[in-house]
Specification:
Length: about 130
């Protein structure tokens, strides 16, 4: 065993992911993770956990596109086949639905990615020094 593995403590993944989805600090679950719509705080306001190590980058956007596409495409197909609405009505409903779902999911998925990195001690989250 090396000194690095001795100093690392095990962090539970699923509780951290739930906290991240709620946009809360993955360590304490009380402090807000984001200071605006998508900007991650440098430190938690409650427990002072350093959150500056995150590297979310484009991950939340890719996951949002993946989820929204896989949810809305089958719904679009089913609604078109079953009810045959006018194209403009169909476009309007699904455009609003896609934008709304994307705006809802994006900060939550960013919180989950930051929480995942924290739980797995990636990108400096495991440094105790």
């Amino acid at each position: 065993m090396t000194d690095q593995t001795i100093n690392r403590t095990e962090r539970d993944l699923w509780p951290a992911l739930r906290k991240g989805f709620r946009r809360k600090c993955p360590n304490c679950g009380s402090g807000p993770l984001l200071q605006s719509y998508l900007k991650v705080r440098e430190t938690c306001a409650v427990c002072r956990e350093d959150l500056s190590h995150h590297r979310a980058d484009d991950g939340p956007a890719y996951l949002t596109i993946l989820l929204v596409g896989h949810l809305m495409a089958p719904l679009l197909h089913v609604s078109f086949v079953m009810w045959r609405p006018e194209p403009l009505v169909l476009f309007t409903i699904f455009a609003v639905g896609c934008v709304t779902l994307s705006l809802y999911l994006l900060p939550r998925l960013k919180g989950m990615i930051v929480a995942f990195q924290w739980a797995r001690q990636m990108h400096g989250f495991g440094n105790t020094a």
